[in-house]
Amino acid sequence: MTTHAWRKSSYCQEGEACVHISTDPDGVHLTDSDAAQTIVTVTPAAFTALLDHLKSL
After folding, report:
1. Residues near 28 by beta carbon (within 8 Å), at least 6 away in sequence
2. What pLDDT, on the 0 to 100 scale, is given for residue 6?
3. Residue 31: inside a domain, yes or no?
4. Residue 42 in contact with residue 27, Cβ under 8 Å?
5. What band does 36 get if pLDDT is binned at 50, 70 and 90?
6. What is the mean pLDDT of the chain?
7. pTM value?
8. What pLDDT, on a 0 to 100 scale, did the predictor assign at position 52?
9. How many domains does the chain have?
């Protein structure tokens, strides 16, 4: 089992309505809780493209 060092987004609403992010050489891992039952993993390039798109909105 992989252990992730989760970092909470600085753009959180009250409570636990936050995105948590963990990175390693293979990808960027995203979840909605530091208890991380469901994890979405993307490549660093895909994550960069997502951030670029969101910033353009």
Report:
1. 21, 22, 41, 42, 43, 44, 46, 47
2. 85
3. yes
4. yes
5. low
6. 85
7. 0.75
8. 97
9. 1
Q: Are strands 40-42 and 27-31 parallel, antiparallel or unpaired?
A: antiparallel
Residue with tokens 């936050």: 18
In sequence order, what DSSP letters do the residues of the chain get, joined into one string?
A: ------EE-SS--STT---EEEEETTEEEEESSTT-SS-EEE-HHHHHHHHHHHHH-
Contact 8, 20 (CB under 8 A): yes
- 11 is in which domain, residue-wise? 7-56
Locus of tokens 């636990």 = 16
Q: Which amino acid is at 30?
A: L
- % of the chain at pLDDT higher than 70: 86
Residues 6+ apart with CB under 8 A from 48: none
